[in-house]
Amino acid sequence: MSAVLNWASKSVGWAAMVAISIFSACSSTFEYEFDDITLDSDVAESALVQREISKIEGFLRNRIAAGVVPGAAVSIVRGDEILYMRGLNQTPHRQYPVLSFTKTFTALAILKLAEDKRLNLDQAAGEILGTRLEATKFAGKKITVRHLLTHTSGIPDSGQIKRLGLYPPLYVPELSYAAGDRFQFSNPGYRLLGAIVEAVTDDTYQAYVIENLVRPLEMRQTRFSIRSNGASGMVSSVADLARYVRLYTNRGEYSGERLISEENYFGLFSTPTQKPACDYSEHRGVAWRVQTYENEVLLMNHAALGLGIGGLIQIYPKHKIGFVFLSNPPTYNDGRYLNFYKELRSRLNDFAVQVGEIDFQPATQLPCALHTVPW
C-alpha cells in the first residue's frame, strides 16, 4: 500500500505560489464521476482503523500538551458511519463560529435553487440582483453565478470599494480581472451569492439555508450569527458538521433523502478555468479546493481560519471518508499552529490511504495548482 501524499513535507516559496495562483486560463469545465465502492460494515471495529485513529488522537494530545492549541475536537466519517468523534480539552458539541465553512452551505443553497429552476448558474449575477457588477473595461465579460461560486468573478477580496445599487447596501471591491480569467479568492463574491439567494427566494439567506439544509441534516447545534452572510457567519460544532460530511460521503444523500442531485454533486469538482497539466494538481471547484491525482479526484477540503478558530473539513469522495476538525488557537496565523495544521492534514491523509486503500504514489511536494496557500 502506498504511503500518503505529503504536501506538507516540502515548503514552497510564497512567490512561487503567487505565480501559480495568477495563472491565466481560457474558459473550460472538467467533470468527474467515481466508481461505486462497497464499504465493510465492520470497519469501525477493525484493528487497522483503531490503530490509525490512535495515531491521530496521540498526535493531537501531544500538541495540546505542548501548548500549540488549548483544545480540539475531531470526527471521522466513513459512508454513513461515525468511526470516531472526540473532544480533547473540550466537547465535540462545542459551538464555534465556523467562518468560511459557511461558503460551502451557500454553494449548496445556490445549487438547490438551480435544481428548482429558480436560477441558472450561467445567468449574469447582476441581472438577478438588479444591479451592474461589471467594470467598464471588462464590460464584455458578464459575471455569472458560476463565476461567483468558483471564485473566478474577478472581484477581489479587498481593494477600492464601490457601493452597489441595492438595499440593504452592499459594497464590493472594484474588479481586478475579467470574469472567468483566473481564480481569485473572494469573500465579497460569496456575499453576493447570499444576496442572490434572498433575491430569488424573497426570504432571508439564513432562513433558506436553515430550512433547506440545516434542518434536513438534523444539525441542531447550528445557527447563524446576527452579522452572517453568504461568506461567513455560521456557528456549528464538530458533532453537527459530521452530519454535514455524511451528505458528501453519500454523494448528495443524507439518511436516504437526496438533498442535491448527483449531477450537482459531481459538479462541485468542476472549474471554469483550465486544469493544470500535471499528475498531482489542485484547483478550486464550486466552493471547495479539489485535489486530483492522474485526473481522478483525490480529495476536497475547506478551511475555517480566524481569531480563536482553526478548522478543516476534508473529504475523500470516491472512498467515502471525511474528517471534521475544529480547534481554538489564540491566532491561526502563527508558525507553530500552521505547522501543526499542515501536519494534521498529512496524518488525516495517512488515515485515508490506509483505511480507504487508496493506491497512488507518494509525492514530495505540494500539488501544482491554479490556487494554493501556505496552509
Keywords:
globular; alpha+beta; disordered N terminus; eight-stranded mixed sheet; 375 residues; three-stranded antiparallel sheet; 15 strands
Low-confidence stretches: 1-29
User: Which class of secondary structure composition applies to the elements?
Assistant: alpha+beta
Number of helices: 10
Given the C-alpha coordinates, what overall shape results? globular
- Terminal CA distance reads 27 Å
Q: What value does the average pLDDT take? A: 85
- Name the beta content range: 15-25%
What order do the SSEs take from the amino end to the carboxyl end, as H and E? HHEEEHHHEEHHEEHEEHEEEEEHE
- Strands side by side in the biggest sheet: 2-1-14-13-12-11-10-15
Helix content: 25-40%
The largest sheet is: 8 strands, mixed
Radius of gyration: 20 Å
Strand segment count: 15
Task: Describe, in plain words, how this protein is organized in 3D.
The protein is of the alpha+beta class. The protein has helices at 14-21, 47-65, 101-115, 125-129, 145-149, 187-201, 205-214, 238-249, 262-267, 335-356; strands spanning 72-78, 81-88, 96-97, 161-164, 170-173, 223-224, 234-236, 253-254, 257-258, 280-284, 289-293, 296-306, 309-316, 321-327, 368-369. The strands form four sheets. It has an eight-stranded mixed beta sheet with strand order 2-1-14-13-12-11-10-15, with helices on both faces. Strand 8 (253-254) and strand 9 form a beta hairpin. The longest helix is centred in the last third of the chain and has 22 residues, at 335-356. The two termini are 27 Å apart. Mean pLDDT is 85; it is low at 1-29.
